[in-house]
Amino acid sequence: MGRILRLYRSSVGKKAVMGVTGLLLFGFVVVHLAGNLKVYLGPASFNSYAEFLREVGAPVFGHSEILWIGRSVLLVALVLHVAAAIQLWLMARAARPVNYRRPVHLEDTYASRTMRWGGAIIFAFVLYHLMHLTWGNAHPAFVPGDPYHNLVRGFQSLGASAAYIVAMIVVGFHIYHGVWSSLQTLGVNQENHERWRRLSAFIAAAIVIGNISIPVAVLTGIVQ
Amino acid sequence: MQITLNVWRQAGPRALGRFERYTAKDVSPHMSFLEMLDVVNEELIEAGKDPIAFEHDCREGICGSCGMVINGVPHGPKPAITVCQLHMRSFNDGDEVWIEPWRAKAFPVIRDLVIDRSALDRIIEAGGYISVRSGSAPDANAIAVPKSIADTSMDAAACIGCGACVAACPNASAMLFTAAKVAHLSKLPQGQPERQQRVLNMVEQMESESFGYCTNHGACQTACPKEISIDFIAYLNRELLTATLLG
Ligand code: HEM
Ligand code: FES
Q1: A123: Cβ below 6 Å to ligand 1?
Q2: For position A108, what pLDDT does the model report?
Q3: ω before B79 within 30° of 0 (cis)?
């Protein structure tokens, strides 16, 4: 435990925490996408998946127990991820009290430069998303227990669909830099980080396209 | 050719700095950037003014002392060289050039473009010694080192400690420097006995020097006059994580 705390005191340790928790959150996004895509299989399949999430683990685990374990892990990961991000951000601000007249972006990418604000936008989006499709208080006609209806009805409103599409693009940039960067931070990149970078770009693009296809399919009437 | 210079002038560590404008006339394209500054300084001295303070020593790209930020880029617009290796032919007649010191809390300005880089020296110092037999000269081939390892170690050892990585990093992080210094010893058989303690101590020193942290932007490797790769940063992270968790 002493070692872990000493590690966390260093910026490398905080980044390792960001990397591990970031990869956990990334894992969630991938699984979540797989669940979302079931919308194309129709209401029965989609709703039974939502039901499955609540029943998984039975009979060893009771109703929603596994779901809550998963949620707790994600919540802890999120808190650690954001706490380390804020600590490191403050550290970086203090490290350059006088900036250059006109800072030049040498190799940093749009994605790497927007990790901080992008992260904050994703946080806001996650809250909206929960209010929209989980709790229903930001939804025009929420029906508890009918996620398929809630999704289709929700995305029929252009504003909500637009918010999701924009948020997914932000998530895509965050994942693109986040995935290869966390492998770098955790020392997995042996050599040739460019290969990992291309792989993360590919994964991020797949996640963005997969998720955006859903509001688009609802708006164009492909999913009803 | 004629160049307009805007140079950061600062009388001392606590003094307030500002840009001052100078004109470099009759600049030959074959001059190095430092020679161009020498000429400007001679004119300043003749006019009874303070010359621009900048650091330099070898003037052939090996000592790492000549660092300055030219138009926002450490060591200027050409890749893989130091300021002393930059020639005026890389500029056009009539150009306006902005010259600033490395900007980092860990590198206080001593005067004008000269900064105090001892934080980097202290990181090296924290690395300590390696256990080798000294005394009579060792047999050159007594310890066999595979070529690929020798090459990687040499790539890391190319670091001249100029601090351009810190200057270029949006977070003023010294990770590339520390990574290179850790790697060039840890890769070799001679670096094994103290391997774990070395990385722990060097990172601890780095953390205490008010540098920022690494966001894997990669600006450091672009700015590095020796083209040291951020693959070494991944290597440093692995070395530190293994030394902490398994050591
Ligand atoms: C509450 C919302 C979030 C905030 C405020 C946030 C913030 C950040 C910040 C500031 C960074 C570090 C960038 C840097 O190095 O300067 C980062 C990295 C990262 N984020 Fe997030 N993030 C959030 C959500 C997410 C989500 C939902 C995921 C998963 C898809 C994720 C995955 C990652 C990964 C993998 C990294 C890389 C860590 C590393 O570089 O080692 N983040 N995040
Ligand atoms: S003066 Fe030595 S590297 Fe430029």
Answers
A1: yes
A2: 75
A3: no
Residue in A8, A9, A11 to test binding to B, most B beta-carbons within 10 Å = A11
For the record, the structure tokens of A224 come out as 């009803």
Residues B96 and B24 in one domain: yes
Distance from C-alpha of A98 to C-alpha of B107, rounded to nearest angstrom: 11
What is the ipTM score, two decimals? 0.92
Domains of chain A (ranges plus CATH)? 2-219 (1.20.1300.10)
**Residues B101, B16 share a domain:** yes
Given a cut of 80, is residue B197 above it in pLDDT? yes
Mean of all residue pLDDT scores within chain A: 94
Residues 122..161 of B with a Cβ closer than 8 Å to A: which?
none
Domain that holds residue B126: 118-246
Q: What pLDDT was estimated at residue A190?
A: 66
Q: B102-130, pLDDT tens digit by residue? A: 999 999 999 999 999 999 999 999 999 99
pLDDT classification of B228: cutoffs 50, 70, 90 = very high
Q: pTM for this structure?
A: 0.91
Test the A interface: residue of B73, B123, B215 with most A CBs within 10 Å: B215
Provide the CATH number for the domain around residue B64: 3.10.20.30
Residues of chain B with pLDDT > 70: what percent?
100
pLDDT at B186 over 80: yes
Question: Cβ(B210) to ligand 1 under 6 A?
Answer: no
Task: Look at residue B140 in the predicted model and tell me its pLDDT.
Answer: 79
Residues from chain B contacting residue A101 (CB–CB below 8 Å): 19, 72, 98, 100
Identify which of A102, A108, A188 has the shortest CB distance to residue B217: A108
